[in-house]
Design brief:
Distance between the termini of chain A: 24 Å
Number of domains of chain B: 1
CATH architecture of chain A: 2-Layer Sandwich
Low-confidence stretches of chain A: none
Largest sheet of chain B: 5 strands, antiparallel
Radius of gyration of chain A: 15 Å
Order of helices and strands of chain B: HHEEHHEEHEH
CATH topology of chain A: Muramoyl-pentapeptide Carboxypeptidase, domain 2
CATH class of chain A: Alpha Beta
Distance between the termini of chain B: 46 Å
Strand content of chain B: 15-25%
Number of strands of chain B: 5
Strand content of chain A: 15-25%
Oligomer: heterodimer
Order of helices and strands of chain A: HHHHEEHHEE
Number of helices of chain B: 6
Number of strands of chain A: 4
Helix content of chain B: 40-55%
Structural class of chain B: alpha+beta
Chain lengths: ~150, ~180
């Protein structure tokens, strides 16, 4: 069950504010500072997902990925195979909306995904990686470490 | 992707990082410049009706508890349930003590450019509600501000561009 239930209207323009923020922090405080904030977002905001992962329960992570991409009408395929979760994104809804607003996606737009995912996994038997395939396309993989099985 | 539903939770993390470096104000100005994309032409062209139109959309899209009152000389926005602070207070991450300051932080510079006065009463930084008055009249703005002070509202809970009244006046369209 999701810690943060969201079922009402969407304000997609927040993707534009996120994009502006990614650029602002990187330009004024450096990419490492941006990574710190994103990692902390993954670790603290998604504490519930992280604590479940620590107990070997990936159910909230799977529900999170599925629900929020479904809600924002992304194109994706989610495959759960025991100790591996593969989330293939064919069209990222955030980047689609940035283009709709006439905004250039930040060079750090995919860093938000890789660092937030890493924050969710911090201190748990799970690892995450993001392979960017092109604009708006990536493969996010979560894997349970071999020695944790 | 940080879902748009969770942007405010990320915003809260950014605020805590910047607040610890006494660096919130320049960031608010950057957000204000970004928000010009959505508001500047609308507010300059349609004045208070533009403000009303923008917040009608926000009320729906952000799922606000919000009352909008349109009077001949002002628009009053009563936020009865701020979805932004509500989410942050309900989150697992610690709220930024100055979370509420971001609204005035981006709105004041933008409205000043549009020749519109802003008087925002945060009421409390730990309650998801506030009152904001938008007006083109300096006299109305001063009266609203005076009433807040007379009622005992702490000045640090009030955001306004009254101090920049010369800029506000210069930014008004020629009539």
């Amino acid at each position: 069950m999701l810690r943060y239930q969201e079922n009402d209207e969407l304000h997609r323009d927040f993707h534009g504010t996120t994009d502006t923020t990614l650029n602002y922090i990187a330009e004024h405080f450096g990419v490492e500072a941006l990574k710190t904030i994103l990692r902390k977002t993954g670790r603290d905001v998604y504490k519930s997902i992280r604590e479940k992962l620590a107990r070997g329960d990936a159910s909230e992570l799977v529900e999170h990925l599925n629900w929020f991409f479904f809600r924002e009408q992304g194109k994706y395929r989610l495959t759960v195979n025991g100790d591996e979760i593969v989330f293939e994104v064919m069209e990222c809804p955030a980047i689609r909306h940035l283009r709709k607003l006439g905004l250039e996606p930040s060079p750090y737009v995919c860093l938000q995904t890789s660092e937030v995912n890493a924050g969710m996994c911090e201190g748990t038997p799970w690892t995450s990686e993001v392979e960017v395939l092109g604009e708006g396309r990536c493969v996010q993989t979560f894997r349970r470490k071999e020695n944790a099985k | 992707m940080i879902p748009s539903d969770h942007f405010v939770r990320f915003y809260n993390e950014v605020f805590k990082f910047l607040d610890g470096r006494n660096a919130l104000e320049p960031y608010y100005r950057e957000i204000s410049r970004h928000q010009e994309l959505h508001c500047l032409d609308l507010f300059r062209r349609e004045r208070l009706k533009g403000v009303l139109k923008y917040y009608e959309r926000i009320r729906i899209e952000e799922n606000c508890g919000m009352e909008l009152v349109s009077l001949p000389d002002r628009v009053i926005l009563r936020m009865t349930r701020c979805p932004s602070l509500s989410k942050v207070l309900d989150g697992d991450a610690e709220p930024c003590p100055r979370y509420c300051d971001h609204c005035g932080g981006w709105e004041v510079p933008l409205l000043t450019k549009c020749g519109i006065y802003y008087i925002g009463n945060m009421i409390s930084r730990t309650e998801p509600r506030c009152d904001i008055v938008y007006t083109e009249s300096r006299e109305v703005a001063r009266q609203v501000y005076r009433e807040l002070i007379d009622a005992g509202t702490p000045p640090d809970l009030i955001d306004t561009n009254l101090d920049d009244w010369e800029k506000v006046e210069k930014s008004k369209p020629a009539r």
